[in-house]
Design brief:
Strand order of the largest sheet of chain B: 2-1-3-4
Number of domains of chain B: 2
Bound molecules: iron/sulfur cluster
Helix content of chain A: 25-40%
CATH class of the largest domain in chain B: Alpha Beta
Strand content of chain B: 5-15%
Low-confidence stretches of chain B: none
CATH superfamily of the largest domain in chain A: ATPase, nucleotide binding domain
Radius of gyration of chain A: 18 Å
CATH class of the largest domain in chain A: Alpha Beta
Mean pLDDT of chain B: 96
Shape of chain B: globular
Number of strands of chain B: 8
Oligomer: heterodimer
Largest sheet of chain B: 4 strands, parallel
Number of strands of chain A: 10
Largest interface: A-B, 15 and 12 residues
Distance between the termini of chain B: 27 Å
CATH topology of the largest domain in chain A: Nucleotidyltransferase, domain 5
Shape of chain A: globular
Largest sheet of chain A: 5 strands, mixed
Low-confidence stretches of chain A: none
Order of helices and strands of chain A: EEEHEEHEEEHHHHEHEH
Number of helices of chain A: 8
Distance between the termini of chain A: 22 Å
Radius of gyration of chain B: 20 Å
CATH topology of the largest domain in chain B: Rossmann fold
């Protein structure tokens, strides 16, 4: 059986193909057209796997661009998909913290990949990947460098919750001569505080898995650990959780191949 | 299948504007009311037509924000906006307006609205757990009665009151019967249609006509149910809506739930079952005003503290309507409902083990996509996907 999960996020589009004994993935920028990004990611995935559309049994779309995809069999929300994908990546996950490009969410699950409760911030950029991106630009660096640049620094106080105000706060901190490393550490803490508050309101997790693009940022993960006082797990492919979940849901009752990280 | 009568029902607001115009020409008086605590029986007993002025549309909000703070519940802003822009014929036709000291926002808004129309403010007790609460409310009803008599130049007799009580009870009973049609599984009437039908009740110029129409609608729904038909796909999760009042114009959450595959089978909020549950005692021995006072104070609204009736009602409805999930809809800046949500969600989880979600939004369309994601995820969750 071949199933595909397509996660069209605001910044990146992720596609995963499950066959009976393995899975393969493709990641590319979403750009301005979620529909085209979805089509291209799907086409590339097929090419790389040496398959055609006719070989695929079920395709499920997820992510904010899921509604733009006309060739999928079904759309499932990123919340349901992330819960399933995180459980696949880290078995027994009972809380998922997902920080993506334009939203962040905390999902409680039953420990078997099924959602029992969730909370979401999708109204403002604070606490999302977008916030980090704006701050990186203000500091003249790339988001991917943030974690390394902030290593071990004492976080500077960033009090603005709003991205626009926080940006001017960062600029004035720079003007005051506060070190870049401390400012970045402060930015990480600001994202983590927002998300941790959401997690605490929702309930307690014992096995917390961190997914989404921002999970790649070690600085944010460390801040989350400090805020919540709990261990937080990430795996190298955590950004694929949504697409993996979609491809798994598409399999229905057909068992999935074992996860290479377990 | 959609009952044919719905085509008539959905146009009732417009139809009734004409009827109201005619009634005004015949010198009938109109009493505007904003809230479920406003005793319609008194207006009817005064020979007047009670109409609902509760604002459910986004359009007049921009105008309201020139005077009122932006960070205020959309229901208050919409109601105020309709009034000051003179875009609500029901407001224009109102000779007298009844307001209550419910939430702070509404209470203070009425102070400003007073410049536009004569408004009588009824003082609600803060809760119902004090021995003097009913006595207090009864006194308020007596003051309202005097004001109505003065302003409309009529006398409200016990006999008129008794007749009005019977009429309103019949209306409550028929609305409740309609609402209870969706206790059936599968539910025979779309939630959006149910909301339309119960919302239109507020605009009836002649309650008898309204009652007949709902009876006709029930007849049609019974046929649909008997043939096993339903507007919903098999297995659609059954949702109960609670929280702030929802009307036509502010129905976006109901629409989205049904677009995402859920079935809104029960409306606990103000246009819904909350106001149909209790009847006014018709006992001839009893003082009719006292009977009215007792009945209205039972409305389980979050402006009351404490508000145990809401939980008792929710519990009953969750079982009676075989509910799979509860949506607590709170309008932005509605403190009483937003705070009470904590208790609602704990109550639902602890006593019934079913899921609930709080949705906080306003009347605009700016958050439709985000709402849709939340609602779809909730539907997926309660369908056990
Ligand atoms: S929710 Fe409460 S205050 Fe609002 S209309 Fe209903 S009874 Fe009145
Ligand atoms: S919804 Fe809440 S804030 Fe708005 S009028 Fe009703 S009680 Fe007041």
């Amino acid at each position: 059986m071949h199933t595909v999960g397509l996660d069209v996020g605001s910044i990146m589009t992720k596609a995963v193909l499950f066959s009976d004994d393995a899975w393969q993935s493709v990641v590319m920028p979403t750009g301005y057209s979620p529909r085209e990004a979805g089509e291209q990611a799907f086409a590339r995935l097929l090419r790389e796997c040496g398959l055609t559309r006719g070989d695929i049994d079920v395709i499920i779309g997820t992510g904010y661009g899921r509604v733009a995809l006309s060739f999928i069999d079904k759309a499932v929300t990123e919340i349901t998909c992330h819960a399933r994908g995180a459980h696949y990546l880290v078995e027994g996950t009972d809380m998922v913290i997902d920080i993506g490009g334009q939203d962040s969410k905390v999902i409680l699950t039953d420990g078997a990949g099924n959602v029992t409760n969730f909370a979401m911030n999708d109204k403002c950029a604070a606490g999302t990947g977008r916030f980090l991106q704006v701050m990186a630009t203000a500091l003249g660096c790339d988001v991917s460098e943030l974690a390394d640049l902030a290593r071990d620094a004492e976080p500077a106080q960033i009090s603005s919750m709003c991205t626009v105000f926080a940006e001017s706060e960062v600029i004035s901190l720079l003007a005051q001569g506060v070190g870049k490393d401390r400012i970045i550490a402060g930015i990480h803490r600001s994202v983590a505080t927002r998300v941790a508050a959401m997690a605490e309101r929702l309930g307690q997790g014992k096995r917390i898995t961190f997914t989404g693009g921002v999970a790649k940022n070690e600085g944010v993960r460390e801040c989350l650990v400090r805020e919540l006082g709990l261990a937080i797990i990430t795996v190298p492919e955590s950004h694929l959780a949504g697409a993996l979940g979609a491809a798994l849901i598409a399999r229905g009752k057909t068992p999935a191949p074992p996860c290479p990280f377990q | 299948m959609r009952p044919f009568t719905m085509n008539v029902v959905q146009d009732m607001r417009e139809q009734n504007i004409l009827a109201l115009e005619h009634a005004k020409r015949d010198n009938r008086k109109v009493v505007g009311m904003y809230c479920a605590f406003a005793p319609q029986e008194l207006a009817l007993a005064a020979g007047a037509i009670p109409v609902s002025l509760c604002g459910a549309r986004h359009e007049p909000i921009a105008a309201a924000e020139k005077t009122l703070p932006r960070n205020l519940c959309p229901l208050i802003k919409s109601s105020f906006g309709f009034a000051i822009t003179d875009t609500c014929p029901y407001f224009r036709f109102s000779d007298f307006i009844v307001a209550e000291t419910t939430c702070d926002g509404k209470k203070k808004m009425f102070e400003i609205l007073r410049e536009y129309k004569p408004i009588h403010m009824m003082h609600l007790p803060q809760g119902t757990d004090r021995p003097a609460a009913v006595a207090w409310w009864l006194k308020e009803l007596k003051i309202l009665k005097e004001r109505l008599e003065e302003n409309l130049g009529v006398e409200i007799t016990r006999q008129n009151l008794r007749e009005a009580i019977k009429l309103c009870n019949r209306e409550r009973l028929v609305m409740k019967r309609l609402h209870e049609m969706n206790r059936l599984d599968p539910a025979p009437l779309a939630g959006l249609d149910m909301l339309t039908a119960i919302w239109m009740k507020g605009f009836n110029v002649d309650k008898e006509d309204g009652i007949n129409q709902i009876n006709q609608l029930i007849g049609e729904i019974e046929e649909i149910a008997a043939s096993g038909q339903s507007p919903f796909r098999p297995g659609a999760p059954r949702v109960l809506l609670t929280g702030c009042p929802v009307g036509i114009g502010s129905e976006k959450v109901v629409r989205l739930v049904e677009e995402c595959g859920g079935a809104v089978v029960c409306f606990e909020s103000c246009s819904g079952i909350k106001t149909m549950e209790n009847l006014v005692d018709e006992d001839e021995e009893k003082d009719p005003l006292e009977a009215i006072a007792e009945c209205y104070l039972k409305i389980p609204c979050s402006v009351m503290t404490p508000n145990p009736g809401r939980f008792e009602l929710l519990g009953r409805l969750i079982s009676d309507y075989q509910v799979d999930g509860v949506i607590d809809l709170t309008w932005q800046a509605c403190h009483t409902y937003i705070i009470e949500d904590v208790n609602v969600r704990n109550y639902v989880k602890d006593n019934f083990g079913i899921s609930s979600i709080q949705l906080e939004t306003d009347y605009s369309n700016s958050d439709l996509e985000q709402l849709k994601t939340r609602i779809s995820a909730f539907i997926e969750m309660i369908s056990g996907q």
